């Protein structure tokens, strides 16, 4: 991954709407642009502009299916960033710490406590 590729990736991930788009595409792979756009309170053009940024970063793959553009998440660029900074050893412990964090957050939600 070049530095320019990393810049595009971090730029794409920096926007809240684009992260939400990635979540929706991950949860429903193959959905069309129109279906995705209905999930947001912005114009279809605005969603398409966000998709262009995500595609330029390599995070979204699209496939023409008649008049519909089907969308798929490509997690490889995120994995490449992970591989760049996380060794196997530290990755093991990072997984343990995040699992503990998620468990604590779930317990707090169950008790109705706010979390950060």
What is the CATH architecture descriptor of the largest domain? Orthogonal Bundle
- What string gives the helices and strands in order? HHHHEEHH
The overall number of domains is 2
Q: Which homologous superfamily in CATH is the superfamily of the largest domain?
A: Winged helix-like DNA-binding domain superfamily/Winged helix DNA-binding domain
**What does the main sheet amount to?**
2 strands, antiparallel
Low-confidence stretches: none
The secondary structure category is mainly alpha
Radius of gyration: 17 Å
Number of strands: 2
Question: Mind telling me the CATH class of the largest domain?
Answer: Mainly Alpha
Helix content: 55-70%
Describe the protein in words.
The protein has 116 residues and is mostly helical. It has six helices and two strands; from the N terminus they run ααααββαα. It has helices spanning 3-13, 16-27, 33-37, 44-56, 76-85, 88-111; strands at 60-65, 68-73. The chain has a two-stranded antiparallel sheet. A hairpin with a 2-residue loop joins β1 (60-65) and β2 (68-73). The protein is globular.
């Amino acid at each position: 991954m070049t530095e320019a590729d990393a810049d595009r990736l971090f730029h794409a991930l920096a926007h809240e709407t684009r992260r939400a788009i990635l979540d929706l595409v991950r949860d429903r792979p193959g959905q069309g642009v129109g279906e995705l756009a209905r999930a947001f309170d912005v114009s279809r053009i605005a969603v398409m502009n966000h998709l262009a940024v995500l595609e330029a970063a390599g995070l979204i793959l699209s496939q023409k299916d008649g008049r519909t553009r089907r969308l798929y998440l490509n997690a490889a660029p995120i994995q490449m960033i992970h591989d760049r900074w996380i060794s196997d050893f530290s990755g093991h412990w990072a997984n343990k710490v995040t699992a503990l964090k998620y468990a604590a957050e779930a317990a707090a939600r169950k008790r109705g406590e706010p979390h950060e």
